[in-house]
Amino acid sequence: MNGLDRPLIADVDAERAVLGACIASPKVALEVAEILAGPDDFLREQHRTMFWALVELATMEKPTDLISLRDHLQASGRLGDAGGIRYLVEVNESLVAVGQATHHAGIVAKLAERRRAVQAAMRLLQKLENPERETGDALEEFAADVSRARHPDARPGGRIRLTPASQIQPRPVVWAWEDDGHGRIPAGSLISAAGREGTGKSSFGIWLASEITRGTLPGTLYGQPRQVVYVAVEDSWSHTLVPRLIAAGADLDRVYRAEAVVDEGETTTLSLPHDLAELESVITKHGVGLVVLDPLMSTIGGTIDTHRERDVRKALDPLARLADRTSAVVLGIAHFNKGTGTDASSLITGSGAFKNVPRAIFGFACDPDDGTRVMTQTKNSLGIGDLPSLAYRIVSAKVETTEGTAEVGRFVFDGQSDRSVAQILGDRTDPDERSERDEAAAWLDEYITAQGEAPANDVMKAGTAAGFSKDTLKRAKNRAGVESRKAAFGSGWVWAKVHTEGSTKGAKGA
User: Fold this and answer.
1) Is-contact 509 199, C-beta < 8 A?
2) According to the 3-state scheme, what is the secondary structure of 394-424?
3) What is the Cα–Cα distance from 35 to 412, expressed in whole angstroms?
4) Which residue from 328, 336, 338 is spatially nearest to 359, judged by alpha carbons?
5) Cα–Cα distances in Å, from 123 out to 42, 119, 138, 146?
6) Are strands 329-335 and 288-294 parallel, antiparallel or unpaired?
7) Which portions of the chain are predicted below pLDDT 70?
8) Do 120 and 145 contact (CB within 8 A), yes or no?
9) Is 326 helix (H, G, I), strand (E, B) or coil?
10) What b-and-e string marks burial along 73-92, b requiring 16 or more CB atoms within 10 Å of the CB?
11) What values do phi and psi take at 329, rounded to 5?
C-alpha cells in the first residue's frame, strides 16, 4: 500500500460530505473554494472533477443541484471522470449537514497539506540517495517544497536570486506590427481589442490573422507567413469565421480551430490557465505567430472570479509569459461594459487585470450618426503612447460556397482618422449640431467632387470661409464620403472621395 493511500492522509467521507453540501448550495461551493487550495486537495480524481464542476456552476450563478451538476458534467464530457450518475447520487446522499461544510473542508485541506508534505519528504529522500547531489542544495529545495505544501499558490523556487543589471543584455523591442514607422504590436505579447458589439473588433482579429498567414503584416513577420491558432466561442466557424477569413484573403491552411479534448469525440472551449501548457506546446510545435481568443473572457476558467484582479491575473500573467517565451502575439477580444466613460481601456468588462496585463490595447468605436468607425490605440507599453487613430470600414463581401453565396463583412483600414474613440464615446451632439454637420457634409461633397482631391489645409480654409468650423468639417467627412490620405507626390495630406470597394450595407462587424 502506498503511503499516500493510508487513512491518515485522506478522509474520503469528509470529501464526500463537502461535495454533498456543495451540491445542496451554490453559496457553500464558493465558501469551500475559499478554504481549499484547489480541486487537487481532494484525493480521489472523481471528487476533483466533481468539485471543479460545482465551482464552475456556482461562479456562473447557476444551480448546483444533482440534475444541474449531471447536465454540466455531461455537456463538457466529464461525467465519466466524475464516476458517472450513480456515483453522483451516492455522493449527494453523503450530505451530513450543510452547516458543517466548512468544518469538513478544513479537514480535507489539512490532509491535503499533509500529503504534499509527505511528497516533499519522498523527493528529499530520492535526492539524498543520489551521491552527486549536494546535501545543502537538497535541504534548501526541501524547505521550499515544505513551504509550497503549506502554500500551494506560492511560486516555485523559494529563494531570491540577484542579478546585476550590468549582466543583462539590453535588447530593442521587436515589433510584430509597425504602422507608418511606429510600433503598434510587440512580438511575444498579450494584446487586447475592445469595443461594443458590432464595432468590428472581431473583424480586426480576422484581418490580423489574414495578414500573418500571408506574411504581409509590416513588421518582423513580414515575408514570413505563420500559423494562426483561433479560439472562437461565440461565432460559427462554417457560417461566419471561414467565410470572413476567405473574404480577408487568409491562407486557410495556416488557420487552426483550437478546442480542448475532454473525452473521445468530445471537445470544449480552452480553459485558462488549465490548458496553457498544451497551448504552449502547440505554438512551439507548429510555429504559431498569432493566437486569437474571441472573446478572452470566455476562456478564463470557471473557478476564477473575473471581477477580481488577483484571480484574473492567475490566468493572464501566465498567458503573457507564454507569449513572451514563444514570441507569438496573443490577441484577446474584449467587450465594453455598460459604463459611460470615454477611456476604452477602463471600459473593458471585468477586473482591472484585463487592461493592466496586456502590452497593447486597441479600442474600437462607431459613430451611430454618421457611421464613422475609428480604432484608437489606448495602450502601447513598449512604444509611443499617442499614435494617431485609424479609420476603418466594414465592407460587404460575397463568398461563394458549395451551398450558395455567403455575404460577410471585411475589415478595411482607411488611413489616419481626425477623430478618436474617446471623442466618439463622449459625443453627445444635440439636433442643432447634427444639422450643422449635415450642411457641412453637403458642402464638402460638392467641393471635393468639383476638385477631385484637395490639400487638407485648402479644404479647411475654404470650409471655414463657408462658415463651418474645422471640427465640424472633420466630423462631416464620413457622411460626405470623403477620406484623408497621403498625397501621391510630395508630402502632406489630401481629402478625396472614398474609393468604394463594396457597399457597407448589410456588412456587420463584431
Assistant:
1) yes
2) EEEEEEEECCEEEEEEEEEEEEECCCCHHHH
3) 51
4) 328
5) 21, 6, 9, 11
6) parallel
7) 1-8, 147-159, 264, 427-434, 488-491, 499-510
8) yes
9) helix
10) beebbbbebbbeeebbeebb
11) -90, 130
Q: Cell 480553459 belongs to which residue?
A: 271
Tell me which amino acid residue 465 is: A
Give the cell for residue 65. 443541484
pLDDT digits (tens, 9 = 90+) for 183-192: 999 999 999 9
Amino acid type, 404? G
Element (H, E) at 59: helix 45-59
Closest CA to 337 of 346, 328, 329, 325: 346
Q: Which one-letter DSSP state was computed for residue 209?
A: H
Nearest one of 65, 25, 59 to 298, comparing CA atoms? 59
Helix (H) or strand (E) holding 179: strand 175-179
Cis omega (within 30 of 0) for bond into 295? yes
Tens digit of each residue's pLDDT (9 = 90 or more) over 327-379: 999 999 999 988 878 889 999 998 999 999 999 999 999 988 778 899 999 99
Task: Return mean pLDDT, the chain.
Answer: 87
Per-residue cell: 486: 497621403
- pLDDT, tens digit (0-9, with 9 covering 90-100), for 22-32: 999 999 998 88
Q: Distance (Å, rounded) from C-alpha 303 to C-alpha 38? A: 9
What are the beta bridge partners of residue 395?
410
Q: pLDDT tens digits for 36-86?
A: 888 888 999 999 999 989 988 888 888 999 999 999 998 888 899 999 999
* Contacts of residue 71, Cβ cutoff 8 Å, sequence gap at least 6: none
SS3 string of 100-169? HHHHHHHHHHHHHHHHHHHHHHHHHHHHHCCCCCCHHHHHHHHHHHHHHHHCCCCCCCCCCCCCCHHHCC
C-alpha cell at 510: 463584431
The C-alpha cell at 186 is: 510587440
Reported as half-sphere exposure (CB side, CA atoms, 13 A), residue 85 has a value of 6
**Hey, what's the cell of 439?**
450642411
